[in-house]
Design goal:
Blueprint (H helix, E strand, L loop, with lengths): L7 E5 L1 H10 L6 H10 L4 E5 L9 H10 L4 E5 L3 H10 L3 E4 L19 H13 L3 E6 L3 H10 L3 E5 L1 H8 L3 H20 L3 E5 L4 H8 L4 E6 L1 H10 L1 H20 L1
Parallel strand pairs: 1-2, 1-8, 2-3, 3-4, 4-5, 5-6, 6-7, 7-8
Helix pairs in contact: 2-3, 6-8, 7-8, 9-11, 10-11
Length: 253
């Protein structure tokens, strides 16, 4: 039996920048938070540079590329402006996400089927520049199969619906959503796509999702930044790592 590889943790630092921007100035510094998270066990850093710059700023991306020694995952909308920034910054990876100015946070997966013609050249240009491309999509067969046709080597499955069902105590819906994630991960792996997952994960839901053997990475931000207010970022990251390890053990057993 092929051993299941360990699961990677990507820390999304957007909401450190959200706190900074609420008052202006330079503190708290998202780059300092990224360095601390890496020291405590994060395998990479994710940052979403939005069109309206509501949290992460252009200079944050430049500093992250310069100062962190782990992979930088640049979340961005598929716009000409963001493509230019990505080609200039040259992060390890770009995750293409949907973006709506009115939303508080990303509300669902990218429409890779309707946006096929727009996304294809974006993906090709990023790959040509040596940047690994991921698509943030729903865990359904149709978008996963389209991601394969678009040539994306990685997908990140949107876990928000599962996490919301757990949060609201809707156990039947949570079971269905977890099954959807399992089936989606299996289909992606069959197509040769590396599978990541993220959105809304906390200690409990991250542990459950970690038991899906095809998932290689979780990207978690808001919960860990919030938890850090109470226990500190190093403790929060270590507790998340412990939850992921516990979940992974269930996948092996």
């Amino acid at each position: 039996m092929t051993p299941i590889p360990p699961l990677r943790l990507g820390l999304n630092i957007d909401h450190v920048a959200t706190i900074r921007n609420a008052r202006g100035g330079d503190a708290p510094d998202p780059v300092r938070a990224a360095l601390m998270a890496i020291e405590c066990g994060a395998d990479g850093i994710t940052a979403h540079l939005r069109e309206d710059r509501r949290h992460i700023r252009d200079e944050d991306m430049a500093r992250l590329k310069l100062e962190i020694a782990k992979p930088l995952n640049f979340e961005m909308a598929a716009t000409t402006e963001m493509l230019g920034i990505a080609l200039r910054v040259k992060p390890y990876a770009v995750c293409l996400v949907p973006e709506n100015r009115a939303e508080r946070t990303t509300e669902g997966g990218l429409d890779v089927i309707g946006g096929h013609n727009h996304l294809k050249p974006f993906i090709e240009e990023l790959k040509h520049a040596g940047i690994r491309v991921s698509l943030f999509i729903e865990a359904d067969a149709a978008p996963i199969e389209m991601a394969a046709r678009l040539g994306a080597p990685v997908i990140e499955m949107h876990t928000g619906s599962y996490c919301e069902a757990v949060q609201h105590g809707n156990h039947a819906l949570a079971e269905r959503e977890l099954l959807r994630l399992k089936q989606g991960a299996r289909r992606a792996a069959e197509l040769g796509i590396e599978v990541h997952a993220g959105h809304g994960l906390d200690f409990y839901t991250a542990e459950q999702v970690s038991a899906i053997p095809e998932i290689m990475e979780l990207n978690i931000g808001h919960f860990l930044v919030g938890e850090a207010i109470y226990v500190g970022l190093p403790v929060a990251v270590r507790q998340m790592r412990a939850a992921m390890v516990a979940g992974r053990a269930k996948a092996v057993s």
